[in-house]
Amino acid sequence: MTEEKGLTPRAQDFAAWYNEVVLRAELADYAPVRGCMVIRPYGYAIWELVQRALDEMFKQTGHQNAYFPLFIPQSYLAREAEHIEGFAPETAVVTLGGGKELEEPLVVRPTSEAIIWPIMAKWIQSYRDLPVLVNQWCNVVRWEMRTRPFLRTTEFLWQEGHTAHATEAEAEEEARRMLGIYRKFMEEGMAMPVLTGRKTEQGKFAGALRTYSLEALMQDNRALQAGTTHNLGQNFARAFEVTFQNEKGERDFVWNTSWGVSTRLIGALVMSHGDDLGLVLPPRLAPVQVVIVPIYKADRERALVLEVAQRVSSVLQRMVRVRVDDRETLNPGAKYYEWDLKGVPLRIEIGPRDVTAQQVVVARRFVAGDGKRKITMREGEILASVERLLEDMQRELRARARQRREENSHRDVTSYEDLKAILEAKGGFVYTGWCGSPECEDRVKEEAKADIRVIPDDEFRSSKAPERCPVCGAASTQEVVWAKAY
Amino acid sequence: MTEEKGLTPRAQDFAAWYNEVVLRAELADYAPVRGCMVIRPYGYAIWELVQRALDEMFKQTGHQNAYFPLFIPQSYLAREAEHIEGFAPETAVVTLGGGKELEEPLVVRPTSEAIIWPIMAKWIQSYRDLPVLVNQWCNVVRWEMRTRPFLRTTEFLWQEGHTAHATEAEAEEEARRMLGIYRKFMEEGMAMPVLTGRKTEQGKFAGALRTYSLEALMQDNRALQAGTTHNLGQNFARAFEVTFQNEKGERDFVWNTSWGVSTRLIGALVMSHGDDLGLVLPPRLAPVQVVIVPIYKADRERALVLEVAQRVSSVLQRMVRVRVDDRETLNPGAKYYEWDLKGVPLRIEIGPRDVTAQQVVVARRFVAGDGKRKITMREGEILASVERLLEDMQRELRARARQRREENSHRDVTSYEDLKAILEAKGGFVYTGWCGSPECEDRVKEEAKADIRVIPDDEFRSSKAPERCPVCGAASTQEVVWAKAY
């Protein structure tokens, strides 16, 4: 990492900026395996915080973790027709095992419905065994043509929830509940506002009845699908004969859901909040929330300053993830540069004069509006002040992201020319009516490289329902949100 | 699960007992993929507790988690000669990706040295970048011929630590430190005493300079290798050109270690502590430490008893993992049977008479010696009493396992006839001298189906050093421990 060379500014080349942040903040690195990346310790520490927060929410809503095999016999994947059609082109296949050609090739899971349901079928006999609420944290593989760290890689880490229910209504409720849990995490944990809604037929998961999605707007005004939940109906239950005896004593197929978010969320964090100095992490997901940088010249000062730094650190670490950067090989400026790049929310500077005055200087990684970047505070009040600052920053970061999204949401777009012009010139979320035909969606895809991100949930709909589909002019059956997307 | 049919007694068929416990306690199930298993929620909850405890210990000693790719280009695996020789016969190989034959086949990682070091080589420039202390929690695949749930499966979950150091002494110290951490976890967390020591040349990891191992004795008197740590010397550094500039300004190869434990530990728990009623879990690794079973006949009693059960539960859950089993579909006897099978340390029975007397009955899953299985205690003292009981049980379980190991350790064995006879008739750990030749180890392997588990660490050595190798009669150069093993 060369300190001298700054990052490419976002306004100049957002994609280059993104890649530089990912590499130089040491979130990830390229791997010498096609389309794969390495998640470096700093990036993985963010993922661990994501996991911890989500896992707790899953467990609070009655889900249990389990682990199903990495390999899926090829014939299993083929049992659900839409599913195999969607996933076959992007699978990695094991054909050799223990030095011999396998009788049946094994697909490395791209998602686990086709291995989980044939197994769980054995465990479900009666309505008393339902609901089954299972989740797994694992790696999956999809043979992607164009890959970018976190956003699209051949192998990625994710969680996949899989549930079985006695009725369609319960499955629908579960798909909706998990959408709500994801939304809560993204908005409160990631400080990232999301649009929620239903995917069109073309956008839904291969094999699902309905797919719900959470869409966030990145700083380059492209949408990022941050997570999805699926009401799978009885499609997989039929394919894998997952039946149960209902309360009337009849055999019936279960109703399934699945839902997942992945390490892609780390890419979403980068592109939601980062600036030209690097990463900006929401305090709740910052592996280091406060870094303390001791400042000294003479050796005599060093001992004094480090002693106070350690004391402040031990006070803060009761409630905060704190680190003292006592590296001798870097000067304070180089440390500031590095921790700004890594998005640490607060930096505490302690020099000999601060020691004498029993104070510290706290620098915020970002300020909202015309707020002050540096605050001097008395050592005695530091814990309460830092906690409050971190909470403020979390809230302000979210408000800033929300404001940016609102400024880049375009409603009341009624003509096809306007739709295309906005998508091409500005990007962002564009709300229009839609006739419901895939042909109109395809035309926008082809001509403006954008698609329908969601049929938005009620709360996101425009106050006045749009009247016409801007593409064909026919009457609108639902409002939709268009965007170019990752 | 049929309640009526008990488990096969351990004394009758230990292997059958093991499989039944694993399946019926719902730890795992077979998968329709060759040699693979499913870890069911109850088994996975144990694994999560194992992970949490170990992960904390790793982080306290400065290690950070990361994630490296699942796939290793075949040519990489081949770069370290011993390594490829050891692992090539048991690899699963991806030859198709995205519908096309790959130019270079990708091996599904059997262990990650061959992908981690070529990547980390880029990150290490100078002695200032050392040590590198990384760990990953992941799945690995080894194409095993004979598999058994948890003990040996084609795919399994593990953690693999990988470190790089500036000197041989530091690498050796790290391999030793991690051996100590594993031992502490196994003895204190799992209540499972382990022998530690060095593996012979034949027993070491393919590519290592030295392998250290932790060996536990199962109830059928077979040894189980519970974990290993490796001083890899500069073998992988040379193969993957992992160099650094030392303090003198010279380029040198780094010194590496690796170390791992896997879901095999769950099998070790089963076979260390289980009894003919099923699993016996050490309290620290029990997903449910206390189960509360309400006992009632009339509906009027039900509300009363459940109210107290919930009250007791909410007191306990401050410090203890507790669950109220309020299922209407099972009678208390069936619940006792199930929770005994699942190894829950304490069961609290609450009936109408207990409610009146403001007391509860606590039943221990196991008792040491002639201790009492059931204890009546006043509701007001329950939290302190339960906490103390769980601590007692943890300690007693460990003492019992330790005593069993000592009773089945045979020292002062000097003749080859005795060595073979003990290994065949009794099993257990057999201490003898050894001349150091692989031929003598091979002979025992062939004739008694046992091998040298470890060259034991000092504290495990017999007070009087053995004089001769019992196999060939030559002078002993070191004491060794023989056993039949999993």
Low confidence ranges of chain A: none
Number of helices of chain A: 14
Count of DSSP E strands of chain A?
A: 23
Straight-line N-to-C gap of chain A: 27 Å
Rounded to an integer in angstroms, the radius of gyration calculated over CA atoms of chain A is 25 Å
The amount of beta strand of chain A, in percent, is: 25-35%
Q: Could you name the CATH class of the largest domain in chain A? A: Alpha Beta
List its salient traits.
homodimer; alpha+beta; BirA Bifunctional Protein, domain 2; Rossmann fold; Translation Initiation Factor IF3; 3 domains; 5-stranded mixed β-sheet; globular
Describe this entry's structure for a reader.
- Two copies of one chain form a homodimer.
- With 486 residues, chain A is an alpha+beta fold.
- Chain A has three domains: 14-273, Bira Bifunctional Protein, Domain 2 (BirA Bifunctional Protein, domain 2), CATH 3.30.930; 290-389, Rossmann fold (3-Layer(aba) Sandwich), CATH 3.40.50; 409-483, Translation Initiation Factor IF3 (2-Layer Sandwich), CATH 3.30.110.30.
- In chain A, 35% of the residues lie in helices and 26% in strands.
- In chain A, strands 3-7-8-14-11-10-9-22-23-21-20 form an eleven-stranded mixed beta sheet. Chain A has a five-stranded mixed beta sheet with strand order 16-15-17-18-19, with helices on both faces.
- The longest helix of chain A is centred in the C-terminal third of the chain and has 26 residues, at 382-407.
- The two termini of chain A are 27 Å apart.
- The mean pLDDT of chain A is 96.
- The interface between A and B is large, with 57 and 57 residues.
